[in-house]
Amino acid sequence: MTYFTINYGFMLIALIITLAAQAYVSSSYKKYSSLDNSKGLTGSEVARRILDENDLKDVYVLENRGYLTDHYDPTRKVVKLSTQVFHGTSIASLAVASHECGHAIQDKEGYMPMRIRSSLVPITNFASYTGYLAIMIGFIFNSNAFFWAGIALLCIILLFQLVTLPVEFDASRRALDKIHKYKMVSSDDLSGSKSMLTAAAFTYVASLATTLIQILRLILLRGRRD
User: What per-residue confidence (pLDDT) applies to 13?
Assistant: First the structure.
């Protein structure tokens, strides 16, 4: 098998994984966005109920502009829900809102993987801006120092993505547990919410796999030039 076959094979695999993840999430969100939950609860009502039941009355639920811009802000203690989720009564809105509340509960309990991920954010942001730049400089000037420094920065991104997996899966587990415990869903709603959150989690797995493949491809490319 030639070098070019392996190189472009890596690129093709990464592309397929990325597109598959996007298609999976889009199709799941589209499906469950069209199905109302049995209780007729909006995403904001779901979030408020879960937060209140877990003694998080000081955490606000705010509407956030954009599409799928939902997130929990641990610095401001705010659950931000996109307009569609905030006002929507679909199963998707219920699932997304409860998931973000799962992060708020993690924050309250000092969930260790979440704390580790938060501590990695500054250096990961730095690595995202400078990693590929260092690798490019390494190739242009044939510098091993710059190349391997860039690879090390990409490995920081990989570590961040790896730590993100338990954070996201645990938030979804907490979400499903809470909406079931508080009788906010029917059995069909719960099944749909689980499918929706599983699709969302797949994107994080795909990102991790894609970054790993890219690192291996770059190392292969460098090895070929040496």
Answer: 87
pLDDT in tens, 145-187: 999 999 999 999 999 999 999 999 999 999 999 999 999 999 9
Q: Which residues are catalytic?
A: 100
Q: Residue 79 pairs with which residues in a beta bridge?
A: 61, 72
The answer to whether residues 161 and 128 touch, using CB atoms and an 8 Å cutoff, is: no
Distance, CA of 134 to CA of 201 (rounded, Å): 30
Which residue(s) pair with 73 in the sheet?
78
Report how far apart, in Å, the C-alpha atoms of 93 and of each of 46, 57, 84, 164 are. 9, 21, 7, 22
Q: How many angstroms from the chain centroid is the CA of residue 15?
A: 18
Q: Quick: pLDDT tens for 67-121.
A: 889 999 999 999 999 999 999 999 999 999 999 999 999 999 999 999 999 999 9
